[in-house]
Amino acid sequence: GQQVMQIPQYQHVQEGEDFTTYCNSSTTLSNIQWYKQRPGGHPVFLIQLVKSGEVKKQKRLTFQFGEAKKNSSLHITATQTTDVGTYFCAGPVRGGYQKVTFGIGTKLQVIP
Amino acid sequence: DAGVTQSPTHLIKTRGQQVTLRCSPKSGHDTVSWYQQALGQGPQFIFQYYEEEERQRGNFPDRFSGHQFPNYSSELNVNALLLGDSALYLCASSLGAAGGPQHFGDGTRLSIL
Q1: Residue A98 and residue B45: Cβ atoms within 8 Å?
Q2: What is the DSSP letter of B93?
Q3: What is the pLDDT tens value at each position of chain B, 113 positions in all?
Q4: Are B43 and A88 within 8 A, CB to CB?
C-alpha cells in the first residue's frame, strides 16, 4: 500500500536557526498536505499543494511540492519557540474515495 | 462557526469492554474520517464515512466499526477492547471524500486497563 515517509523524526534547533523536514511518498500524490500538532493538541491543517513544482509561503514557512509529485518539504526560517510541535505531511491514496495517509511526523524542539 | 467536536474527552475502560466515541463535523462538511494516534506516531487511518456509508477502511480489525447519521455526525465503536487500543482517537471532517484537507477535533484519549 501507499507509504508516506518523513525525515528526520526529531530535530532540535537553537532559536533563530532554520529547520527543514522532508516527505516522500511511494506513489504519486494528487496533493500533499501539511499539518502541525502542538504538544497535547490535535493536528491543525497548514496548507495543501496540488501542482507539480509548486512553492507556497506562509510568513517564515516555505512549502514545496516536487516535480514528480512524490516528495515535499517544509522549511522554517529563523525558528521561534512558537514553532515547537510535530509537523506531519499527508497525502490521499488514489481512488474514488480517497483516504489521507499521514507520515510519522517530525518533532521540532526549539531551544531558546 | 463551530469546528469539529468530539466526546468524551477522556475515557478509561478495561480489557474486553466496548466503547463508543462521538464526533460532530465542522459546519458545512459532509465527510468524517477516524484516526488512531499512538504516542509518538502519526495518525493512522481507521475509516471514512460519506453519505452514511463506510467508503474507505484502513488496516483495522472488524472490532472497529462506525456509523454516520443523516446530520453527518459519526460514531466510532470498538468491541472487545485490548490494551493496544489505548490511544488518542481523532475525528476529522472534510468536504467531499476526495482526500482534501482534514479538520480535526481535539480527540478522545482512550486508556485501557
Answers
A1: no
A2: E
A3: 679 999 999 999 999 999 999 999 999 999 999 999 999 899 999 999 999 999 989 999 999 999 999 999 999 999 999 999 999 999 999 998 778 899 999 999 999 99
A4: yes
